[in-house]
Design a protein that fits this description.
Elements (H helix, E strand, L loop, with lengths): L9 E4 L4 E3 L1 H6 L7 E3 L11 H10 L5 E4 L5 E6 L3 H6 L4 E5 H19 L19
């Protein structure tokens, strides 16, 4: 049994919309290369062919990983920039792990603002990190 108090930290990018949580789990089969989960475990992980191969085998990750300018793992996918897509239908973008995590945090903020009474403005948040997280 799963709790409804937590938001699943999986999301899917499509050219038109971003899907989060349960919607992303449904969209996972249609968009496997642009569905992201467990991005926190990739924070500050150095890029190497062995690391990418291990991810593909252990977690069955289908994302296209590339090395960013810092030497860390980044994800390459189609561009969601409408201008870039207009000029080049196959335009790609690299996302840092921090950007992927920021997308899920922004989604959580929008959920909170919708639920908040009054003006619906969320200014501060507390993010907890489990003690076992390295």
């Amino acid at each position: 049994m799963t709790t409804q108090r937590k938001t699943d930290s999986q999301w899917t990018l499509t050219k038109d919309v971003r899907l989060f949580g349960k919607d992303s789990f449904v969209g996972n089969s249609r968009y496997p290369k642009t569905t992201f989960a467990d991005a926190a475990s990739l924070m500050a992980v150095s890029y190497s062919d062995d690391t990418v191969e291990k991810l593909a085998l252990d977690k069955f990750v289908l994302n296209d990983f590339v090395e960013d300018e810092r030497g860390l793992i980044a994800v390459q996918t189609f561009s969601i920039d409408k201008k870039a897509l207009k000029d080049d239908e196959d335009a790609t973008t690299e996302y840092f792990n921090e950007e992927l995590i920021a997308m899920i945090l922004a989604y959580g903020k929008s959920l909170s603002e919708r639920q908040a009474s009054g003006n619906g403005l969320v200014k501060d948040a507390v993010i907890t990190v489990p003690s076992y997280y390295n």
